[in-house]
């Protein structure tokens, strides 16, 4: 079982045990790699397909145990030695936008994308990141289960196959100065925004003027005091060593972020049908396992950040209700500009159905 990374300060120095983060967005990419590469090795034949993938994830992120004991046994029967994957780690192919450009030019065959990259490639997916859309993961799962085919189709229109539709998770707010326990903090903070138009409009609706940067520029911008606050997943904060800059983290559920592993449609369509059929028989199990593990790990990372000395605070319900009222118009303001109105309507219809069933004690019937 992978060990947890505990962070702490002692005399101003950083002490750490083994770091083995397991981000869901990159986990699906590693699953694909393990499945395809091990299949070729098993048969000892030269692969017909040599694919190149890229991700922001650092090499050796600690998914080996999960791949070996959970995923690999399910996938060994699928491969026939025809595909080999080379993965470019740690953003060496650029940020998500740069990786997507290389895919479109055929320099890369696929990618493991963060929430930001997912909505660059598939703008319709940005609906899922609207502030206060989801209350918990049960709602996320219900919408994803009922709209996976929709998002697979949207992604195909963008020229990519949605191999794994998973979580980045409910992102946290981190800051060098603010705890975000009061509304004034949201106005005063100098937010570095990397996620796209939905995130930018969220900040502006609260009277903030965010500072756009690419993700690789977040840490340097924090060091240079260009900004002091950031919203994102714990895995990126820990994996990038960004945590050394922060004093506060607020895990109040404001934004859910999807993540995905994608393959160029041209490359996916070149696979034999039996490979495709085998993939569909295993897809749900792969995605569910990674989402479950990612959500567990997210809680562990917050504990680790607390042990390091970062103050964990939550916004009180009354303040959060006031913030919710201020940002709710963003949903409609972005219709037609960022995502089609019918996508938001479909998502909210599914949510209403689920919430009504839950209120009447029938949520088990609609999962």
Automatic annotation (TrEMBL):
Signal peptide: none annotated. One of its GO terms (biological process) is transmembrane transport. It comes from the Bacteria. The keyword Disulfide bond does not apply. Pfam families: DctP. InterPro entries: DctP_fam, TRAP_DctP_sf. The keyword Signal applies. Keywords: Signal. This is TRAP-type C4-dicarboxylate transport system, substrate-binding protein. It comes from Desulfatibacillum alkenivorans DSM 16219.
């Amino acid at each position: 079982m992978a060990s947890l990374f505990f962070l702490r300060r002692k005399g101003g120095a950083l002490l750490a045990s083994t770091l083995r983060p397991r981000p869901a967005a990159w986990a699906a990419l590693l699953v694909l790699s393990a499945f395809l590469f091990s299949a070729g090795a098993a048969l000892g034949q030269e692969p017909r397909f040599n694919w190149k993938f890229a991700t922001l994830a650092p090499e050796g992120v600690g998914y080996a145990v999960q791949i070996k004991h959970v995923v690999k046994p399910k996938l060994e029967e699928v491969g026939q030695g025809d595909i080999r994957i080379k993965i470019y780690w740690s953003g060496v192919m650029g940020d998500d936008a740069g990786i997507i450009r290389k895919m479109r030019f055929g320099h890369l065959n696929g990618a493991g994308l963060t929430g930001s990259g997912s909505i660059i490639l598939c703008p319709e997916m940005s609906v899922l990141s609207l502030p206060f859309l989801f209350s918990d993961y049960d709602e996320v799962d219900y919408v994803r289960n009922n709209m996976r085919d929709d998002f697979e189709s949207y992604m195909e229109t963008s020229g990519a196959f949605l191999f794994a539709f998973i979580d980045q998770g409910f992102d946290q707010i981190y800051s060098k100065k603010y705890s975000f326990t009061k509304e004034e903090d949201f106005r005063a903070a100098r937010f570095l925004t990397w996620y796209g138009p939905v995130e930018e409009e969220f900040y502006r609706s609260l009277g903030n003027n965010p500072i756009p940067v690419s993700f690789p520029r977040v840490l340097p911008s924090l060091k240079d005091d260009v900004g002091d606050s950031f919203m994102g997943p714990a895995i990126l904060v820990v994996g990038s060593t960004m945590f050394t800059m922060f004093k506060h983290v607020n895990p109040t559920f404001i934004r859910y972020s999807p993540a995905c592993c994608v393959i160029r449609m041209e490359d996916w369509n070149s696979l034999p049908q039996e490979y495709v059929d085998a993939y569909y028989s295993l897809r749900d199990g792969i995605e569910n396992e990674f989402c479950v593990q990612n959500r567990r790990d997210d809680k562990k990372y917050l504990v680790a950040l607390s042990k390091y000395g970062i103050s964990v605070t939550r916004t009180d319900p009354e303040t959060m209700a006031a913030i919710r009222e201020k940002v709710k118009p963003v949903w409609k303001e972005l219709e037609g500009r960022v995502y089609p109105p019918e996508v938001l309507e479909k998502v909210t219809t599914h949510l209403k159905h689920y919430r009504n069933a839950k209120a009447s004690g029938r949520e088990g019937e609609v999962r």
